[in-house]
Amino acid sequence: MKKSLIALATLGAVAGAANAQTSVTLYGVIDTGIEYVNRVASAPSALSPTNALSGVAPAGPRVAMNGNGGLSASRWGLRGVEDLGGGLKASFLLESQFTPDTGAFAGNTGIFNRQAYVALANEYGKIGFGKQYSSLAEGMLNFSPTRAAPAYEPGVWWLGVNYRPANTVKYTGTFGALSVAAHYSFGAGTALSSLSGGGILYGGGLGETPGAWKDNTAWGASATYLGENIGLGIGYDEWHPAVTVGNPGKVRKLAAAGSYTTGPWKFVAGYRWGDQTYANGNTGMRDDYWFGGVSYRFTPAFDVQLAYFYTNIKQLALTNTAASTNPANPQQVSLVADYAFSKRTDVYLTTAWAHNGSLANDGPFTGYLFNYASAPGQKNMVGVMAGIRHVF
């Protein structure tokens, strides 16, 4: 009997030690609200060069629940870590985005559509394998003027539709105030289909094509310094989307940004150079994207963010044989007021005005992800949303 008790006590101690070294956490965000958009059309169901820059009839005001989220994309996830000893840790992350107004997975994609990776880490950094944020996103999101609010910030325009590439090996390291990242994707993949007739150069395939290894591959790197008052970041991303097998195009983005914090004030500003080239070498789009913003925290619970976004589209060709055009340059002003009841629950009011384009620069180059297709010939668009966000 004594031996049995000793054995059970030893087994319990070992199990307790194992539990202390391993953890799995369920987390998430639910964010939705009521939105008014003054004049919005339907996104084209089948893109073509004749309607790609605007939506299709009918067009008019829209009042509805916003499934994309006002301050955050709604999501849930599982993350876990195991201490392997000697400073080495194994971890995983599975994250799924959904639309709270319907409960459906965002974009009708797979269950873990945001991130899904396994990683090893020690004091020198972490190496992850799977679907992860690009290095450009890793380096730039700290400088988002409205904290990457999905409702009206042109975040996908800024970072690219491939900002969470699949089939990715990624290194991240943090050394004091300095963070670095580098990644390579064997096939980034997007859910965005190309235009018919050789238009928009994105392909929907995941890459990793036999005999065409370069199709849909991507790579990039970034470095970020986040000091007590000053932040600086720089990042590069290159992606080779292939609409047809063996004919990859090239999408390149180079970005730099900075921030300054003093008391309740925070100022951010940044620039992103972009160049998109068809497989035949013709330019799809060449643009410069600028942004600036300021936020002020009136109380620990209440803060306001004001942002301005401007895009200089220097060249645009919707097909690989079309002549380049120089369309009117989109610009947008956004304002967010956020009040926190607690660390987990807040309410907000967000509004934006866009000129020469849709809210969030939504269109064919962002796959109409946010349903802000502008009516043909439209010059201005206004959106207002009041909502609630709960973090768990």
TrEMBL record:
Pfam families: Porin_4
Signal peptide segment: 1-20
Gene Ontology terms, MF aspect: porin activity
Record key words, sorted: Cell outer membrane, Ion transport, Membrane, Porin, Signal, Transmembrane, Transmembrane beta strand, Transport
SUPFAM superfamilies: Porins (SSF56935)
Membrane topology: Multi-pass membrane protein
UniProt GO BP: monoatomic ion transport
Assembly and binders: Homotrimer.
Protein name listed in UniProt: Outer membrane porin protein 32
Lineage per the UniProt record: Bacteria, Pseudomonadati, Pseudomonadota, Betaproteobacteria, Burkholderiales
